[in-house]
Amino acid sequence: MRGQYTRRTILTIAAGALGAVAIAPVMGRRGTTDGGAVLGGPTMGTSYRVTIPRLPAGVSREAVRRQVREVLDHVDATMSTYRPDSEVSRFNRAEPGVWIPVSAGTSKVAAAAIDMAWRTEGAFDPTIGPLVDLWGFGSAGPFKRVPDAGSVAAVRNQIGYPALEERRESPALRKRKYGLQIDLSGIAEGFAADELAGTLDHLSIPDFLIELGGEVRCRGGSNPAGRPWTIAVELPHLAATRPQRYVALADAAVATSGDYRKFFIVDGRRYSHLIDPRTGEPVNHDLASVTVIAGSAMQADALSTALLVMGSEAGFAFAERHRIAALFIARGEDGFGERMTVFFNRYVTEQPA
C-alpha cells in the first residue's frame, strides 16, 4: 500500500516478565509459546506480528498462519494504491458519477472513513492522497521542496470527502468530482487488525495480541506469562530510550500517530508528512504524537490521525467531548509534555517488573 503505512513505530510491547518482545520494523520470526504460536512477517509495506499464548485443541499453528495470511493478502489486494488491479486503484481511475463495484470490506472501510471525516469536520479525509503526493510523502516521493501556493490550491480542488459516496447494498463507491481519489491507508491497517481479531475469534482463540504497522489489537487478559497485555507508548523522539507510558489492555485496540519520523526542513521550518486536509499543508503546531485506545483498531487508527491534525487544544477538547481515551504528547521549551483524557488514564499502569 502507500508509503504512509510505515508512519507508526511508536507503540511497543512491554518486554521482560510479560514474555513478549519489542516490536521491530520487520518481523519474520515464527515460534511457539508453550502450546501457542507467534506469527509474523512483512505485509502491506510494513510488518505484522500475532502472539497467541495458547491454541485451542484441534487448531493447528499452520491453520492459523494460513487464515491470517489470507486476511492480510485480501486487504492488500483490494485497498492498495500501488496495485493497479486493486479496487481502490480502479475507483481512482474512474469517471465521476459512476458506481464502481467493490468488496464488502472496501465498502466498510470507505464508510468508516467517510463517517470519520464528517465527524472530525475534515481533520481526517480519505481523499487526501493527491496532497500527500504533492508534498513528497506519497508514492512519487520522497522529495524535499515546498510546493507553491497555486499548486496547493489546485490540488485542494481535487480533494474533499463530501464528494465521495459509498453504497452498502451491492457494495460500490462513487465520486462526484473530477480528479477525486481515495487513499484508505489512514484506516486500512486498523481494519486489517480487526479482521484478524475476527478470524482468531472464529477459531475460538480466547487470548491474542495483534500488531500491524504499529496498531495493536488484543483480546483476553492473559499474555504468554499469564499477565495482562501491557503496551509501552514511546516518547516521540528518534533518540528516545524509554517509554512515556504503559497501558494495560484486555479487549481493546491502541494506535499512535506521530510526526517525528517523516519530515523535511526547508529554510528552518519543519514540514511533517501529516497533512491537514483543511489547509492543504503539513500540520504546524507543537503536538508530536497522539495515542488513542478504542474498541476497534480501525477507530483508534483514524482518531489518532485526526486528533494529531487538530492540534493540542482542539484535539484535546474533541477527545474529551467525545469521551475518547487519548494521550497527547507535545513539544515544549523544556522537552516534552503530556496531557491525557480521563478516559485514557483508566488504562495507565506501572512499568512491568
Describe the structure in your own words.
- By secondary structure, the protein is α+β, with helices and mostly antiparallel strands.
- The chain has two domains: 3-78 and 186-349, ApbE-like domains (T-fold, Roll), CATH 3.10.520.10; 82-185, T-fold.
- It contains nine helices and 19 strands.
- An eight-stranded antiparallel beta sheet has the order 2-3-7-8-11-16-17-18. Strands 1-9-10-19 form a four-stranded antiparallel beta sheet, with no helix packed on it.
- Strand 12 and strand 13 form a beta hairpin.
- Helix 3 (104-119) runs parallel beside helix 7 (297-310), helix 6 (185-202) packs antiparallel against helix 7 and helix 7 (297-310) packs across helix 8.
- The longest helix has 19 residues, at 61-79.
In terms of topology, how is this protein built?
Layout: E1 11-13, E2 37-43, E3 46-52, H1 61-79, H2 87-93, E4 100-101, H3 104-119, H4 129-134, H5 149-156, E5 164-167, E6 172-175, H6 185-202, E7 208-212, E8 215-219, E9 229-234, E10 243-249, E11 252-258, E12 263-266, E13 269-272, E14 275-276, E15 281-282, E16 287-294, H7 297-310, H8 312-321, E17 325-332, E18 335-340, H9 342-345, E19 348-349
Antiparallel strand pairs: 1-9, 2-3, 3-7, 4-6, 5-6, 7-8, 8-11, 9-10, 10-19, 11-16, 12-13, 14-15, 16-17, 17-18
Helix pairs in contact: 1-6, 3-7, 6-7, 7-8
